[in-house]
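Worked example 3 (structure in, sequence out).
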């Protein structure tokens, strides 16, 4: 790949980033730095993705920038009790979240309890509409079986997810091109206006380019934009900025 090709990918990918800090040791000071980093000299990222306790701080720090505030619920465990998930969601909305990244109960889904997963997704979506977008994390590295990943994609789309997302970044296998291929195929074949988010382990411009190529091939060259495609990443942004420079 030539330097100009790398730079073109970097320019394209930067506004698609959900700049993320979901480390267990995250501090208010780290969140301020994250919010400041999201406003790059090459333009803003799509969103910051933070723990629920940092939503209000991020909202204040990024006021007027147009950068969205995303947070996580049922994270990372993908628990089966929906009531605390709804409580987390309501508080996140009250604090100013624009997007909710929900870990679906993927273990229950893999065990055959598809109704529980669909019901939880629908319940969270009902809390959000029309105030915020819902990204459903499938945890594809734990589902493993391509048929199961496809079934989870179809289920989340049918339950009215705004995005389907690969991973939490907290398991051994996170985003993979193979999972992206399955998930984007499900979106295309559904005919619904659903977005895709690749998250976990994407660190280089070349890796970002692989996912963009898959999306272009399956969805068409004009489909990718911040309303339809995201990268969930913490270290990718610095690689993109370096390539642009």
């Amino acid at each position: 790949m030539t330097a100009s090709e790398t730079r073109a990918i970097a320019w394209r990918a930067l506004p698609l980033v959900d700049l993320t800090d979901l480390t267990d040791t995250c501090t208010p000071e780290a969140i301020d730095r994250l919010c400041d980093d999201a406003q790059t000299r090459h333009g803003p990222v799509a969103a910051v993705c933070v723990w629920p306790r940092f939503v209000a701080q991020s909202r204040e720090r990024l006021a007027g920038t147009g950068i969205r505030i995303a947070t996580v619920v049922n994270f990372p465990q993908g628990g089966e009790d929906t009531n605390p998930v709804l409580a987390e969601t309501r508080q996140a909305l009250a604090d100013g979240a624009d997007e909710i990244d929900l870990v679906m109960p993927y273990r229950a889904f893999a065990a055959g309890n598809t109704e529980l997963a669909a019901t939880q997704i629908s319940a969270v979506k009902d809390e959000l509409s029309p105030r915020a977008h819902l990204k459903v994390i499938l945890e594809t590295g734990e589902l493993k079986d391509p048929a199961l990943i496809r079934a989870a994609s179809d289920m989340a789309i049918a339950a009215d997810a705004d995005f389907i997302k690969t991973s939490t970044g907290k398991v051994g296998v996170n985003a993979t091109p193979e999972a992206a291929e399955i998930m984007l195929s499900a979106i295309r074949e559904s005919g619904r206006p659903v977005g895709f988010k690749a998250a976990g382990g994407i660190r280089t411009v070349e890796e970002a380019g692989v996912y963009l190529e898959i999306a272009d091939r399956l969805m068409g060259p004009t489909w990718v934009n911040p309303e339809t495609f995201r990268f969930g990443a913490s270290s990718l942004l610095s690689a993109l900025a370096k390539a642009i420079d």
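Notes: The beta strands are 17-21, 39-40, 43-44, 47-50, 68-73, 99-103, 133-137, 163-165, 195-199, 229-233. Residues 56 and 144 are 36 Å apart (CA to CA).
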